[in-house]
Write a structure and sequence with these properties.
Layout lengths: L1 H30 L18 H7 L24 H40 L6 H28 L17 E6 L2 E7 L12 H24 L6 H24 L7 H5 L11 H19 L20 H18 L15 H27 L4 H16 L7 H24 L9 H19 L9 E2 L2 E2 L10 H32 L6 H6 L2 H5 L28
Helix pairs in contact: 3-4, 3-5, 3-9, 4-5, 4-6, 5-6, 5-8, 6-8, 6-14, 8-13, 8-14, 9-11, 10-11, 10-12, 11-12, 11-13, 12-13, 13-14
Length: 557
């Protein structure tokens, strides 16, 4: 009993002392003088001796990356607090520079994936022509984008905190309507000259350029096997210089679509995290405009209008290309944070997982649909289902959760199958690789899905498009966001299609889009490119009107 009493007294004493300290410590801290750090305090920080590092190395990383590595503005003055603060800022921006550049390199590698998919899905007699279009969209598009496309798209985008501000990109041409300012196009950055010769601007240019390159290469798949190479070259220039940059500005460059939230209270304005609309729908809709003018390949449709399947020559190449594209998409979507440090950029992990999940459900849904409908799994449509899921998740990837990603990808996988059948049977637009369905249709679905599934949990510096808080869709209480997304869809289907059709109609009048029937039947490789992709597949030189064997390889009948 005595021991129990002593224990209770000890507990009471301990409780009383804890309460006293809880009250006394804050008072003591309030009375304590504030500690002020000065430049002189930094002089006592010692760095590892360089002789020690030279003699022993640093296998444990204890002597590498210390105060000795902080850049000092004035060697005589020594290390200052300003030097330390500037180093912290530069480290953050350096992390974001490196992240964005590496992601840009991944997106550029996607060009191989597109080339493999498109070339594998067409016939061997056109392989050189098709892969050369995929190769040259890079050079043609880059040239046009460097001259004026980048300026039109991003010339007024500043400030961009993750990349150090990008303050030279500070000029947007605007119009006033309903008492509101509406951005139409940028005016800084032509030829990357003047003040836009800037380290941050260069990072932004590279990243945005490879996105534009993705858009231009989409068109080549739809128009394969009957498009003049000269017409392809002419068509790529306005797409990279004007059409793509305009919509890119309206969505990403502080243009009028992004201002629908601040100007009219429609959610956070048009939101397209990584480009379901800006990149994929612009490419798919342009492909539709050109494909309509080109007409179908010879033999695609019977006299009663029913479509025929024209198999490609290498399914192995197609599916390997799909894997390359899926890999590159990890640069496409997570890289669109434009950073890995600060402003909510750590969400890159969630974005990557969302991307992976949507691609998976897209491929599975397409495979299952084709298996049930036709009795066999279809390899090319399974690949297109993967791509459709990736296209659809591109816009919402930064705003949704994994479950929503799975649903978005699943719907995309079925939608691509339905869309391919629709374009074959209703408007009868011949699309050898299904690019209109994969990129155009599912790009629009991705844009709409933001307005449905965005859950409001993302926090990119506390706001998006100048509206505070996370982006929320209809299912999370914001119908205005869906309205903003539908305005973006209407702009894509209306304005972008009209511009693409007009530009390419002019090209058709001046250059002519389509090769002759004779060339199309024999194959485009020799008459258009002067060489076969597969020399073992030979045709008679006389089939092309070639005067001698020296002008073209000998070929089999």
């Amino acid at each position: 009993m005595k021991n129990r009493t002593k224990g209770c007294k000890a507990l009471l004493a301990l409780w009383a002392m804890t309460g006293f300290l809880g009250l006394a410590l804050p008072l003591m801290a309030a009375d304590a003088p504030a500690v002020t750090l000065t430049d002189k305090d930094l002089t006592g920080i010692s760095a590892p001796k360089t002789d020690d590092i030279a003699a022993k190395g640093d296998p444990g990383a204890e002597m590498t990356g210390t105060v000795a590595d902080v850049a000092v503005a004035d060697a005589k003055k020594g290390l200052t607090l300003a030097d330390m603060a500037n180093q912290i800022g530069q480290n953050k921006v350096a992390i974001n520079f490196v992240w964005t550049l590496i992601c840009g390199f991944l997106v550029m590698f996607m060009q191989y994936g597109f080339a493999a998919v498109e070339t594998g899905l067409i016939r061997a007699k056109n392989a050189n022509h098709t892969i050369m279009m995929n190769f040259m969209v890079y050079g043609l598009g880059l040239f046009a984008y460097w001259v004026c496309g980048f300026a039109i798209q991003m010339g007024g985008v500043a400030p961009v905190a993750n990349l150090g501000g990008l303050y030279p990109l500070n000029s947007e041409y605007t119009a006033t309507l309903f008492g509101k300012s509406w951005g139409l196009f940028g005016t800084k950055g032509y030829f990357l000259s003047g003040s836009t010769y800037d380290v941050g601007v260069m990072v932004m240019f590279l990243f945005q350029m490879v996105f534009m390159d993705t858009t231009t290469t989409i068109v080549t798949g739809t128009c394969a096997e009957r498009w003049k190479f000269a017409a392809f070259c002419a068509s790529t220039i306005p797409l990279a210089a004007i059409t793509y940059p305009l919509f890119g500005n309206w969505a990403w460059g502080c243009g009028w679509l992004s201002a629908l939230g601040t100007n009219f209270g429609l959610g956070h304005g048009y939101c397209d995290f990584a480009g379901s609309g800006v990149v994929h729908s612009v490419g798919g809709i342009t492909a539709l405009a050109v494909g309509m003018q080109l007409g179908p390949r010879i033999g695609k449709f019977n006299r009663d209008g029913s479509p025929n399947v024209i198999p490609g020559h290498d399914l192995t190449m197609v599916l390997l290309g799909c894997f390359v594209l899926a890999f590159g998409w990890f640069g496409f979507n997570p890289g669109s944070t434009l950073g890995a440090s600060g402003n909510g950029a750590l969400r890159i992990g969630s974005i990557a997982v969302n991307t992976m999940i949507a691609g998976m459900t897209g491929s599975f849904a397409a495979l299952l649909y084709m298996w049930i409908r036709y009795g066999k799994p279809d390899a090319s449509m399974a690949g297109n289902g993967l791509l459709a899921g990736l296209v659809a998740i591109t816009a919402p990837s930064g705003f949704v959760n994994p479950l929503a990603s799975a649903i978005i990808g699943w719907i995309a996988g079925i939608l691509v199958c339905l869309a391919v059948e629709f374009f074959d049977r209703v408007p009868k637009v011949d699309d050898p690789v299904g690019a209109i369905s994969v990129h155009g249709v599912n790009g629009l679905w991705g844009v709409i899905s933001v307005g449905l599934f965005a859950d409001g949990r993302s926090n990119y510096g506390g706001s998006w498009n100048g509206v505070a808080g996370g982006v929320k869709g209809l299912f999370y209480g914001d119908a205005g966001q869906l309205v903003a997304q539908l305005i973006g869809v209407a702009t894509l289907v209306g304005v972008i299609f009209a511009l693409s059709f007009i530009f390419n109609w002019i090209i058709d009048v001046v250059v002519g889009h389509r090769v002759s029937a004779k060339v199309e039947m024999a194959g485009l490789d020799i008459p258009e490119m002067g060489a076969l992709a597969y020399p073992d597949f030979q045709l008679k030189a006389s089939d092309y009107g070639t005067p001698s064997q020296s002008a073209a390889p000998a070929s089999v009948k």
